[in-house]
Amino acid sequence: MRSAWRDGERVRTVEIEPLAAGRYRVVVDGVPLELAVETLADGRLRLEGADGVTVAEVTAAGERRFVRLGRLDFVLRREDAARRGGAASQAGGLEAPMPGLVTRVLVVAGDAVRKGQPLVAIEAMKMEHLVRAPRAGRVKSVVARLGEMVDGGVQVVELDGEA
Amino acid sequence: MRSAWRDGERVRTVEIEPLAAGRYRVVVDGVPLELAVETLADGRLRLEGADGVTVAEVTAAGERRFVRLGRLDFVLRREDAARRGGAASQAGGLEAPMPGLVTRVLVVAGDAVRKGQPLVAIEAMKMEHLVRAPRAGRVKSVVARLGEMVDGGVQVVELDGEA
Amino acid sequence: MFRTVLIANRGEIARRIAGTLRVMGIRSVAVFSEADRGALHTRAADDALPIGAPEPGASYLRAEALLEAARRAGADAIHPGYGFLAENAAFAAAVEAAGLTFIGPTPEQVRTLGDKRSARALAERAGVPVVPGAEGADPAALQRAAKSLGLPVIVKAAFGGGGKGMQVVEREEDLGAALDSARRLAVSAFGDATLYLEKRLERARHVEVQIFGDGRGGAIHLFERDCTLQRRHQKVVEESPSPVLDERRRRALTDAAVALAREARYRGAGTAEFLLAPDGRFYFLEINTRLQVEHPVTEAVTGLDLVRLQLEVAAGGALPLRQEDVVRRGHAIEARLYAEDAAHGFLPQAGRAERVRWPSAPFVRVDAGIESGDAVPVHYDPILAKVIASGADRTAAIERLAAALDDTLVHGVITNLPFLRALARSREVAEGRFDTEWVEREFLAGFSALAMAPAPELALAAAALAERLLVAPGGTGRTGAEAVPDPFTTLGRWRLPGLG
Amino acid sequence: MFRTVLIANRGEIARRIAGTLRVMGIRSVAVFSEADRGALHTRAADDALPIGAPEPGASYLRAEALLEAARRAGADAIHPGYGFLAENAAFAAAVEAAGLTFIGPTPEQVRTLGDKRSARALAERAGVPVVPGAEGADPAALQRAAKSLGLPVIVKAAFGGGGKGMQVVEREEDLGAALDSARRLAVSAFGDATLYLEKRLERARHVEVQIFGDGRGGAIHLFERDCTLQRRHQKVVEESPSPVLDERRRRALTDAAVALAREARYRGAGTAEFLLAPDGRFYFLEINTRLQVEHPVTEAVTGLDLVRLQLEVAAGGALPLRQEDVVRRGHAIEARLYAEDAAHGFLPQAGRAERVRWPSAPFVRVDAGIESGDAVPVHYDPILAKVIASGADRTAAIERLAAALDDTLVHGVITNLPFLRALARSREVAEGRFDTEWVEREFLAGFSALAMAPAPELALAAAALAERLLVAPGGTGRTGAEAVPDPFTTLGRWRLPGLG
Fold first, then answer.
1. Where in chain C is the domain with CATH 3.30.1490.20?
2. Which partner for C185 in C165, C385, D415, D483 could form a disulfide, CB atoms 3.0-4.6 Å apart?
3. C125 is catalytic
4. Other C-beta atoms within 10 Å of A85: how many?
5. What integer pLDDT is reported at residue B126 of this predicted model?
6. How far is D135 from D117, CA to CA, in rounded Å?
7. Is residue B55 within 8 Å of B122, Cβ to Cβ?
8. In this model, does residue D427 exceed pLDDT 90?
9. Residue C475 has pLDDT above 70, yes or no
10. Which chains does C contact via 3+ CB–CB distances below 8 A?
11. What's the per-residue H, E or C state across chain C?
12. Are C459 and A69 in contact (CB < 8 Å)?
């Protein structure tokens, strides 16, 4: 079973191959691990590998996975979901960086914009954030509407040539 | 829907009749209540009656129901289950009063016993408890075996004439 | 004493106030917006009443809705907590006009001390030095004032305490935009466009003194808090005592705070904030006329319940204790847990806290506003909880804080926990060597690099194995119609196959 | 300092020790019997190793299994907690023979002080008065001794502290049976048939002093604890300071305790227990050579971590603080939450704690051994948690305790919570007017009547409505084959229909 995960700016792949009796061969970005996996009574995973035992706690929240390893936490995102907003993000900031209220819409479809130009303002918890053009181009469509509540990661403006 | 509940030494009955839109007529031991019932997101029940609003939290543990009303807790037992051990209990102490280890068996089937005579000793957490005859009679059978772990409420000795 | 108190707030502070009310045998009434239906603070109170739509302006900032709730609940007093209407003189006056007790200073004191100009005048009368600054609503005049103070200057709303919306302007060409944006936020947050400019002191520390006044000129202090550790001009870690004050300077600072309280004939709990310059001189900043977010560190070192003291002063009109009854012991430190992404500009986060676990350890206190499954709405300040550790000395307190943060778990919404953990283990924090800009200037780059490093292979393996071994209802195999799930209704918690 | 410490215990105390080890950066290793697999104390430690079958004799009392676990874990020290092997001199000696540090007194001190005879001799050398008593294993000699002391007498195992298995004999004809039963329990619990008889002082209070010694004759005290509130001779609510000691008597008591510690050249933490007669005279009872269950009240009033002090003394061979560094402030009170049915003879309970919620409030500490879903095995002491509240004065502490007990929820296993709540709100407790027999003599009948009153109609309505509206997997519609469910595997938690 193969899956892809967004880890910050990276996309990482995991391949799982079941071996005998609760053992798995797990290949992460080409690095192979052999793990004995036990599901504990409280839903945590006990992973025993060559380097010893680690107990992991994985919580799903939408497409995000919060992973606790020992006393550290990591946040991953299932890549099929990440692709929706993520592609825009890689193209450069056309998605809402946080959930919030659209307080200003500064462009309309057809506008030519220069790199860094503010397109939309989003406010949450008394902080205002400007979504800026990642490059020069032309506004294909403005998805966000003034006064609308948007989720973090949702596309707010579409620049020409974007999917 | 009618149900019977063991409340300490008492057996109490509850009849539920659904009315419109989340309202119920609930008759407890003949006392009628009319309640608007809402299931809250965390599984608690919001009960609104003539006397105001109470939030109840009910937890099932086997046949027991732990009921939290405001800042008080009550423990009830579904009567079909209570009858199993409960009948013996009413007849007078022929059940294990607590979960524990059978450390001594002091009678055999056929023994004549006087009221108050020790029949079986059960030990848990460094405490020993003697199960005594609730009345004079004859031992029909000894259910408990020496060295056995028994649950609380389980019958350990059967006296003549007992169900 | 009051019989029923309405808590005009939400989250951790509303819950904390309800706790003291319960101990005192006073009925507590919570209020909630539509976004907070069933929230922890409503569960902690004896009763809870709806006050309106999620937007603060339609609920927690709506004086008439709060007064109506107080009337319905039969409350005889209102505790405003911090934020929202806590420093709104008109609200305080409306509460008193409705025949209820406002648990705080008089409306006039809220007005006078909330206005930087009159607060500075008060300080000058009390003989307490102030930071050079200016105030006004006219952009042109403010521009001129900034130039005469000399850059860098700090721009902020004149009303409302804390560092919210505070900006540092280093270059003249940025001044116009900063004034414009500060003005907009001041109007939206406080309904008043007046701005305040202040000369920025370099490498200063923020030290404040907790005061209590009886409203008739009597006042005491509960020692200081050092709130120098800030990000974006907002406090994030606070402690008491300050690691840099010797007894002589502590005395000078607390004397100044008490002089201010006496001069103002201050009533109830307040905080006199000062900047402490590297040369040891201190300058009065402002008086916050309310309970402070960081009040638990004072409670930990003094053993006193500040909310109880507030209630006693409000009900009895006298201080329930004398200065010599206030005894300091040991050290306490607090970390504020925010739903914000510290590695990405501290952007506020929202969603649902699917799984939450608070630390439980001797000398550790947690003031939390959420439990597992609770929503973190977008509409409010993203504070989730405060973790407070105390000890015989500063080192013991910091060690306990670090361990408690390790034991804290919040899954489902991104928090500043990694940032707090790194801060609690940093050498500079251990040595007390920092100023209010240190986090941004020296700490943040290293932290961000660490936070953006790839997750260990095992983390990815665990995520993928969980997908295979555990069942996430609604988490997998969504249909197209569910492609944009509402983050507030997604269940998203795992169950073990076969147990559900 | 140690690098790895094995905790030879379970439940709340093992978890609490792990907490301090984590703060100090020391690796903690838990042990667990088969009944404790996955228990909270194993989750709190850095590592956990199995040591045997559920019965204590096959696991927590098995010295060789513990030493083997210590070896495997690479531990350099063992903390015994309380109970189990904490006061077993042979175990302490075996630990030292294995080259590890026993965190406690020397094996010789454990032996001397664990033996009532030599402990009493020590007290006499130190000039501290003792309660008249006698000791031995021969039933006939014990019978004679009891008669010469004069009834009533107290009968208990000579080894092992606390009130476990303690019996009061009022009538001569009950003496034989009491000695017989005490002997059996002494053998099973401590492996030694020696019994101890003591003249019973009427209407006495139990007051004890926390001591720390450096092992070379240096010793300090951390003030007293009043543990007078007991049921069945077992402590249930403890506080510090004692509500009945004035400063002169407090001084006399703490002086006596320090004299005992000096005379014994005592090492580490210990507790000198005294009976305080109504006339104000006190009598030495025994020294417990270990951490006490009720140590958190001392921590709350002194601000010191007693487990940390134990580790520092054990590692450094010196006391890390002087008597004048120990400063008392305010009042603290602890309630022990047991799985026991207070209304029915305090019978121990077991099962699964399906739903657990601990209180969270300022000045409230909870030392818990379980979380929701955890098992309460039949094999061990039924203590589930301790709730500790502190305050500026005794009234404030008791008010906080009462509120915290209200906020505590344990469903799935019967507990003494209703008993503790009633106790915390009783007039006699508020006034400090009680002795060690007061609970049984005056409080219990009223409490039991209350506890056995019919549940309100609404409770029955809620139970029946829950049956209808919520889904309890496995809870309803059992087949005959499942008629006797194993209480430890029954899931029994409700789910909302449609969410599961």
1. 132-199
2. C165
3. no
4. 20
5. 65
6. 7
7. no
8. yes
9. no
10. A, B, D
11. CCCEEEECCCHHHHHHHHHHHHHCCCEEEEEEEHHHCCCHHHHHCCEEEEEECCCHHHCCCCHHHHHHHHHHHCCCEEECCCCCCCCCHHHHHHHHHCCCEECCCCHHHHHHHHCHHHHHHHHHHCCCCECCEEEECCHHHHHHHHHHHCCCEEEEECCCCCCCCCEEECCHHHHHHHHHHHHHHHHHHHCCCCEEEEECCCCCEEEEEEEEEECCCCEEEEEEEEEEEEECCEEEEEEECCCCCCHHHHHHHHHHHHHHHHHCCCEEEEEEEEEECCCCCEEEEEEECCCCCCHHHHHHHHCCCHHHHHHHHHHHCCCCCCHHHCCCCCEEEEEEEECEEHHHCCEECCEEECEEECCCCCCEEEEECCCCCEEECCCCCCEEEEEEEEECCHHHHHHHHHHHHHCCEEECCCCCHHHHHHHHCCHHHHHCCCCCCHHHHHHHHHHHHHHCCCCCHHHHHHHHHHHHHCECCCCCCCCHHHCCCCCCCCCCCCECCCCC
12. yes
Q: What is the pLDDT of residues D68-113, one digit of tens each?
A: 999 999 999 999 999 999 999 999 999 999 999 999 999 999 999 9
- In the chain, the amino acid numbered D424 is A
Smallest CA–CA distance, residue C122 to chain A, in Å, is 30
Q: What is the DSSP letter of B40?
A: -
CA distance linking residue C407 with residue C417, whole number of Å: 10
CB-nearest to D399 from C23, C390, C392 is C23
Helix (H, G, I), strand (E, B) or coil at D116: helix
> How close B117 gets to chain C, by Cα (Å)?
46
Name the segment(s) of chain D with CATH classification 3.40.50.20. 4-103
CATH of domain D4-103: 3.40.50.20
Domain extents in chain B: 2-80, 86-159
B2-80 — its CATH code?
2.40.128
At residue D161, what is the residue type? G
- State ipTM: 0.81
* For residue C152, cis peptide bond before it (omega within 30 degrees of 0): yes
Of C341, C456, C484, the CB nearest to A69: C456
Instruction: Give Cβ neighbours of residue A77 (< 8 Å, ≥ 6 apart).
Output: A5, A6, A63, A64, A65, A86
How confident is the model over D226-278, as pLDDT tens digits? 999 999 889 999 999 999 999 999 999 999 999 999 999 999 999 999 999 99
Model pLDDT, residue B95: 82
Which fold, B86-159? OB fold (Dihydrolipoamide Acetyltransferase, E2P) (2.40.50)
pLDDT the model gives residue A102: 86
Over residues C133-141, mean pLDDT = 89
Query: What kind of fold does domain C132-199 have according to CATH?
Result: Dna Ligase; domain 1 (3.30.1490)
Both tokens assigned to D329? 């402030």
- B145 has pLDDT over 90: no
Cis peptide leading into residue C241 (ω within 30°): yes
- CATH code of the domain made up of D205-450: 3.30.470.20
Residue C33 CB contacts under 8 Å (≥ 6 apart), including other chains: C10, C50, C51, C52, C53, C54, C55, C56, C58, C59, C60, C379
Partners for B (CB, 8 Å, 3+ pairs)?
C, D
Which of chain A's residues have a Cβ under 8 Å away from the Cβ of C482? none
- Name chain D contacts of C329, Cβ cutoff 8 Å: 303, 327, 329
Report residue A72 CA to chain centroid gap: 19
Q: Does B4 touch chain D (CB under 8 A)?
A: no
Instruction: Give, in order, the Cα–Cα distances in Å from C426 to each of C312, C385, D397.
Output: 40, 21, 36
Catalytic residue among C15, C16, C290, C365: C290
Which residues does chain C have within 8 Å of residue A147's beta carbon, measured at their own beta carbons?
none
Cα–Cα distance, A16 to B46 (Å, whole number): 46
Locate C472 and state its tokens. 């996430």
